[in-house]
Fold these 3 entries.
Entry 1:
Amino acid sequence: MRMAAEYFSIGSSVAITTCHNIEYRGEVLAFDWTSKVLAIKSDPTNGARGQSDVKLINLALVSDVKVLKEAEDPPQALTNLNLPRIKSRLRDSLDEKRRQVNYVGVGVPPEGQKIFFAITKTISDVRWDGSNIIVMDEVVIKPPYRYEDCSARKSESSQALQHVRKIVSKFLQEESSQAERKSMSPSPAPSSSSST
């Protein structure tokens, strides 16, 4: 392997030929001397404006590296990471994944699961209690998950009950009209084969 330098300046332009005779050209983003990994960015292969392709190249698998142009300006200072914000986003993401795992009911019919997902599009506080759907700890929907199967857990929950019933009713109407469209679509005519 022939290398033009022992290290690469950020912002330099390089041309790299791999051991498979594939050439990459781009601007150096980072170089780790210990692992001999070079990160370069180049124009996007999909032609999108304002975007770049980034490649991590293991220099142990490279047959040639040429520095086409040294960086003229010193690299920009790196910005500080907001670690509390990153931790908060990670925690929120994990909480959302856990909640989504709990969205899948065990041993419930597909109709119940579909209604459950329809409700979660509007209300996030939804969970399973056996085969019953519990919404905001105020409304319970029992199988077979129809409008009349929605009831308030407490008598003062009538506003929440009405809201959940609207969601269930709308979902069931959409499902019904979708089923009608499918049944009304013409089926292919049977092929007639004549034997001679």
Entry 2:
Amino acid sequence: MNNRRILVIDDEISIQESLKGILEDEGFSALSVSSAEEGMLLIEEKKVDLVLLDIWLGDNMDGLTALEEIKKIDDIPIIMISGHASIETAVKATRKGAYDFIEKPLSYDKVILSITNGLRFAQLERENRLLRQSTTKKTRITGNSAIISALRDQIKMVAPTDAWVLIRGEHGTGKELVAQAIHSLSASCDRPMVEVNCAAIPEELIESELFGHEKGSFTGANANKRGKFDQADGGILFLDEIGDMSLKTQAKTLRILQEQKFERVGGSKTIHVNVRVLAATNKNLEDEIQNGNFRPDLFYRLNVVPIHVPLLRDRIEDIPLLVDDLMDSLNGKGLVKKVFDKSAYREMMKHDWPGNVRELQNFIERLAIMCPDGIIHDHHIQFFLKSPTGNITGVINNDMRFPYQAVDFKEAKRSFEREYLNIKLEENEGNISKTAEQIGLERSHLHKKLKSLNIIQ
């Protein structure tokens, strides 16, 4: 209960003072203001866990309107308080998202009980969100090789600390998985890890995405918006593809990382945060520094604990376990599970896998979709590795069924897109920018397409 911050919004100073007193006696951190506008500014600037909001305020905005506006800023529990409310007003407040409704004169026992229940409800909501995320996001790193065992040991050592981590490795090695594993073992595992793909956000929007913006600060800014740093307050912010961040954004990010405070785009209010940063990159940042593309001071700030994710060809003995895991995940997507003969594992262990685990994942999905046989042998591996486009003539000549005949047009189109983009990504060693340029798509559009097809997470 301690350290939970409760905001009281009431135009009666006596109510403010009495509520602050009882809240502080119960171990809460209490803030109080007299108007809805002041309250919303505080919620935008500080992390607030619950709001006690008077319905009848003496300013321009009444409590019901304030309830709606606060919910737009942050979905925190709000308890309405009033001395002149009707049943109709209470029903309206509940429909607008109020957690509870308490009448004046206030029973302090009832206030504390309602606050305790409201905070517990919010915690259960967070846990449910995390549970839903955990069903789609894997945190276990597969493999028994010495290099993977060492990686797991590093994660176990650094995860419980507050240290910042720079995760390095080539495309497709599993850097995001390492970040998720660190988060799952960290002190803030009960809060979602806020993720930002620095390469997927257009340059003109990345500052707004990271730091938030004020209403009217630029065309399309129709409301105040909290940025990723703000959302991660008290938890973990994962900056993926940090090497693709522009020098201008690097400078502002460095200042925030050092001072843990910032202003939103178009704003003047200073917002303080407490954020642990995990960053990842596939680039050689030392080379990027030499070429003038990355700030050395930002590199040293992020590189507190460096973790290197190994190439798949450096842990080739893990392939059988990886294949079994990948096949199980595909079976969960509705694809028929294939059984791999020992000769198939041996054949896959001969391949270099330049696209690493992502290439292996795409290859296993290709086999699951396009190979009609239930048992995969070495000749299947040889055929599909040598014919990555899945040449239909070759398939027919090998008495294999045309892969799309059993699905409707929509699914056939989706399967073709997935297959085509997998091949193009492999040709470009997982580089999304190069792939987008090669096939004539905007990078951001390609990134969205890859996510929609579950090619990347």
Entry 3:
Amino acid sequence: MTTPRFEAAAASAVAALGPQRARALAALLEQGRGAEYAVGEFPSSRTSGEVREVYRAIGAESIPAAAAAAYLRGFSAAWGERRGDAEVTTVWSGPGTPGVPVRSTARVLTEVVREARTELLAMTYAARPYRPLLQALGDAVIRGVEVHIVVETREGAGRLLDGPEPAETFRPLTGVRLWHWPVNRRDHPSARQHAKLAVADRRILFLGSANLTESGVRRNLEAGTVVRGGAAPERAAEHIRALMRQGVLRPLPS
């Protein structure tokens, strides 16, 4: 018996959940847990639809729960092996050198945003309007990407950030969800939200020294890496999501 709907649903679910959480879904199936219970275990809007479709496909094609769980585990293992090889490249801002090919931070970061199809997570310390990046973020929202950006605040930075709040850079982008690390959630008064990264679909991780500003991605001498595949993009996304769920990172008021 062929089960094309379930196989397609399982593939999408594993891609969205990642191998570890897909195995957790398999365990819920074996325990006889229903769709609503499973959706509650994986509550993000990115994954809830995938989980529901797995359950709908199981019902439509009359697949025993044990068989569905076994398939999910096998697909998760294969997915993990396929993602095991990572491609790592370096990116730079600032002056170039003859004979050494480098890719600019501005171009690569914009490409990462453009490649996102379901989820984009980004973090920055400072932020100022940079039109190509803002355009790419706006286009991502339009095509249905769930975009979350974590920024530092002037309060959190003490006296180290001048000008408008970093979040104001992204306020014109309807649909972008802004987060911060509240001062009362920090263990030390001098702690800062200093991470600078972007993760697209848990497949691509940009990690570097550049803030999301024109000086950071174009003018300053900055360095970073892009990781495609492997465990690093997924682990980074899972860590950010966990900080959000635990309330360490919290939504900024509109």
